[in-house]
Please model this.
Amino acid sequence: MAADRVQMPLAQEAKVKVCSGHTRPVPHIAYSRIVDGTYWFVSSCHDGKPMLRNGETGDWVGTFDGHKGAVFCACFNYAATHITTASGDYSVKLWDAINGDCKYSWTHPHCVKFVDWHRSQPRIVSAAMDKKIRIFDTERYDAKLMEWEGHDDQQKMTVFWGEDSNSIISSAADNIIKKWDIRTGYVTQSLKIDALNAVEYSRANKLLIVSAGKAVTLLKPDDLSIKQEFILNEEADCADLAPDFKHLAVGSKLKAKEYDVATGEEQESHKGHHGPVFHLRYSPDSQTFASGSEDGMVRIWPTTTTIRRNRKPDDQDG
Model:
């Protein structure tokens, strides 16, 4: 009789890392790029205290203390020296990522749900619950550069800088993705997607990742055309694409799943969260991805490639 197949143990770097400290749901995670051989991520939280962590180990670095409401989103500048946060206290704050000081706060007339930083210019764009999109200058604080009406529905608003300096891409619960020319404030491209759950932007791949119903679609940001579509057997609540274009991570209720981009096959289905997964982001080196959940936890999962590379033979004989 053939011996039962034994699952080989994993090396430490291929095991899930659990990051505690938040007391309420975690709706957003943002990684920095790799700087001097390392990288970080900031987790937004409804407890109003975004946390900075080492991106490789998950170790706590610091907490940005100053918001009086839930923090829904955060992002790094290109140099990873500053962070902006969007909050339910009607503000976007600019933080020094090195010492944690708050350098400025832009007041909005309503809750701010999303913020994104331009890759090469000192500008940020915000999306608030008054349905408006705003652009600010991170060096000339008082210079509000632009403001316009974004969507008919203020829920689930996201906004990203496009691949050029004159375009912005937004989405909301009206199930429409829009591309704007900020020189005119007009929509140049739009796409209606039923059952839209979430939109993410992979800078490394220059693709939008759209979660809608039981599908994840990769869109080209220049014309919103479809590059690739993944049909799943469960609802896609959120998703992200690995920078190396090998893996797709999908949040589906309590699970963080991973798929092979080339074949569309499910490779891993991670369990561990005790509430729905709200957001997923890959690390800039494509070795792990982090998930934020309603349970207030951040979990760092090894990619399928990392798991397979780090399986080691069982030390026991026989």
